[in-house]
Amino acid sequence: MINIVFYLIAYFLAALPFGLVLARLFAKVDIRSAGSGSIGATNVLRVVKESNPALAKKLSIATIALDALKGLVPLVVAKYYFGLGDSVLWTMAVLAVIGHCFSPYLL
Q: Residues 6 or more apart from 49 whose CB is under 8 A from it?
């Protein structure tokens, strides 16, 4: 049962669109409607740079860091605090990639 909980955590945490959230929260722009339309760090930089270049760099770096951490943190917690095995960790990693690429929060 604990495996299923961690699978869900890995998927739904990785699905968080940090680029979209940060740009909307701090720069008050919807990056999906400008630039390439992507929610990634490059489009955050591209779109926010038009109105605030200094903020654009900070938000794009924060997007990269948070995107990396949302995949890493659940794996570290599962391995070192709960002692889950490699097969569970690999499944979590795959689900994190799927969640990142196909976010249910963007529907």
A: 56
Cα separation, 18 vs 47, whole angstroms: 15
Could you give the CA distance from residue 26 to residue 82 in angstroms, rounded to a whole number?
36
- Token pair of 96 as six digits: 């994190």
For the stretch 44-90, pLDDT in tens is 999 999 999 999 999 999 999 999 999 999 999 999 999 999 999 99
Q: Label each residue of the chain as H, E or C.
A: CHHHHHHHHHHHHHCCCHHHHHHHHHHCCCHHHCCCCCCCHHHHHHHHHCCCHHHHHHHHHHHHHHHHHHHHHHHHHHHHHCCCCHHHHHHHHHHHHHHHHCCHHHC
Q: What is the pLDDT of residue 53?
A: 95
Cβ atoms within 10 A of the Cβ of 103, count? Answer: 17
